[in-house]
Amino acid sequence: MKGMPLPRFSAAKLKRLGVDIFERLDASREYAELVVDILVDANLAGHDSHGILYLTRYAERIKKGIIDPKSKPEVTNESPTTALVDGHWAFGQVTAKKAMEVAIEKARRNSVSTVGAFHCNHIGRLAAYTLMAVENDMIGILMVNSVNPAVQPYGGVSRFLGTNPISVAIPAGEKKPFVLDFATSSVAEGKIWLAAMNDEKVPLGWIVNNEGCDTDNPHDFSISTPTVEGDGRLLAFGARDGHKGYCLSILIEILGGILTGAGSILDRGAVHPNENGILAIVLDVKRFTPIEAFKKRMDSLFTTVHEAPIEPRFKYEQVQVPGEIEWRNRETRLREGINIPDQVWEQIVSLAIELGIKGSLIDSH
Amino acid sequence: MKGMPLPRFSAAKLKRLGVDIFERLDASREYAELVVDILVDANLAGHDSHGILYLTRYAERIKKGIIDPKSKPEVTNESPTTALVDGHWAFGQVTAKKAMEVAIEKARRNSVSTVGAFHCNHIGRLAAYTLMAVENDMIGILMVNSVNPAVQPYGGVSRFLGTNPISVAIPAGEKKPFVLDFATSSVAEGKIWLAAMNDEKVPLGWIVNNEGCDTDNPHDFSISTPTVEGDGRLLAFGARDGHKGYCLSILIEILGGILTGAGSILDRGAVHPNENGILAIVLDVKRFTPIEAFKKRMDSLFTTVHEAPIEPRFKYEQVQVPGEIEWRNRETRLREGINIPDQVWEQIVSLAIELGIKGSLIDSH
């Protein structure tokens, strides 16, 4: 289907369909809406790798008992500034939101906080949670380890680390917030899946094949779906220039997985491969500097970034502030809709029909 | 002098000489020892870019009134979990150590803490401070912005950001601690200076020349010493593969410079170009998980890293844990001494003579 326009859907329709699916799988309306909002928001931000394609994956995990759609996370091991959240294998989004809410409340009372979570399923795009801190005029930091091995260590040749992402969101004034949100691998694994589904090449520097050679063929990277074969590895980010991305990945393995008591690459085979170990740090800006002055400085910083002279071949018309591209994508996609690869849409429709959903929600427009 | 063996000095001799120099420049014994210990420890770790070559730079800054060797930092804006330290332009090392001491004490009482500092001179190698947290069975995180522009933004062509480094140190058990410590630029600026002094090429991907082209000639990167000419820029780390290093650099600009009220690239010209804005976050491990169990898990993680299969052309015999190379360098250099480029040594001797230092301390062995 390469080159064909992909079917396009409104965010509202995708949300209604997603909520209907999860409700039929025994999730409450509240949890179904939370999970689907975070998935569709990832599509809106332009990160289809973290979007609605997870509907069918989560449905499968619910059927297998990996996600318990009725389970509720529980706050444990609490102090005025810290806590651990036992996710009890609820939707990862429910656990991560709880962890961030607890962290924000503790930072409100005590200026800074650190909250971890374990027994936590896949949480989706991290910015969803760090932006909760921003809504409270706080800085949100979130690091997540994933036990599922996909990334080769610097100097190594095996699938060793998860894609171990980090997000930091910081409030601005008139401007949209600063949002850093990325995997410490070259890219998120889902970006390889999507390229494979769309039969597109990937840039060199993202993956190596099973012989450790650079490749632009996403099919050289095998995953658990039937669409991609091979046995390649993701590189840590910046791996062609050194060790730093790998060091960050190991750091997040420790903070997300070991400090919190969640799973780690140490436990491979013994823990759930879809577990996300998460650590949130929240800082209340006003404890350091008056919030309005801080926001003005943030706006000025962004203006200075935009005024920096630009490389003529650069793909944007200005140097970008982290998060800015996603804010623009969101406006465009809210207006024009979200493209979904045929294969993803067919899987969703097939699941919907199986669950008894009929009518316009499963039309391809 | 390319290819000639460099003169080699014991750490002890360099420390005695450095302390003598700073005492003659009106520093107390305590402060002189603190600063020199941190500089020489950087040499021992293998990071000569952050080592004893700063003796003459700091001496010059003292003469110009940039560093006040008698000044003491002051803790301001304090809460049980947070503080800002006004460095009052003391030695940066004195201010950074104070900030980390305050952060550790607050984390001891309240589990987590965040302490910033402003009016702070150059602090040297960051690991010196994050390892203070490790000595207290805590996790130390330190981010530092530098107003001095050296790094080109992703998509840009100008000197825009400082090298904005980060360090995180985490305790282990039988093994040496985890130490992540790097510039968010391709490398620290000092590594370009040293290559220029030693007339060595640098790897492609470190710098671009004043026309924005890749170059391996360190002289294409101009700095404030007379040894390097040109007007090139450092790249953000991993810049050949994308934007992530640049995003981290902007993050540290905000957390180190703007949140703390220290200088930022916004204030160029208005603030001191040598100012370091610093933000320390300290987490008390035992609030999250029993410390002995945590340390055992860290040791196991390191063993797992070492057992990972290795790329045949890799320069080390095992996949490395962040910080490990530096611990080995330290053992070697404590035993065999520290190589100092002739040009650096000549500058030090000339300063020492000017200050009236005579005898064996300024012999070249």
CATH topology of the largest domain in chain A: Ribosomal Protein S8, Chain: A, domain 1
N-to-C span of chain A: 17 Å
- CATH homologous superfamily caption of the largest domain in chain A: Malate/L-lactate/L-sulpholactate dehydrogenase, NADPH binding domain
Largest interface: A-B, 76 and 76 residues
Would you give an account of this structure?
Two copies of one chain form a homodimer. In chain A, helix 1 (11-24) runs antiparallel to helix 2 and helix 2 (29-45) packs across helix 9. In chain A, helix 4 (92-110) links the parallel strand 3 and strand 4. Chain A is an alpha+beta fold and 365 residues long. The first copy, chain A, has two domains: 8-185 and 236-292 and 324-362, Ribosomal Protein S8, Chain: A, domain 1 (2-Layer Sandwich), CATH 3.30.1370; 199-235, no CATH class. Residues 224-228 of chain A have low confidence and may be disordered. Chain A has helices spanning 11-24, 29-45, 54-63, 92-110, 127-134, 189-197, 244-258, 291-307, 324-336, 342-354; strands at 8-9, 74-76, 82-86, 112-118, 138-146, 151-152, 165-170, 178-183, 207-208, 214-215, 233-235, 276-284, 338-339. At the A-B interface, strand 4, strand 8, helix 7 and helix 8 of A face strand 4, strand 8, helix 7 and helix 8 of B.
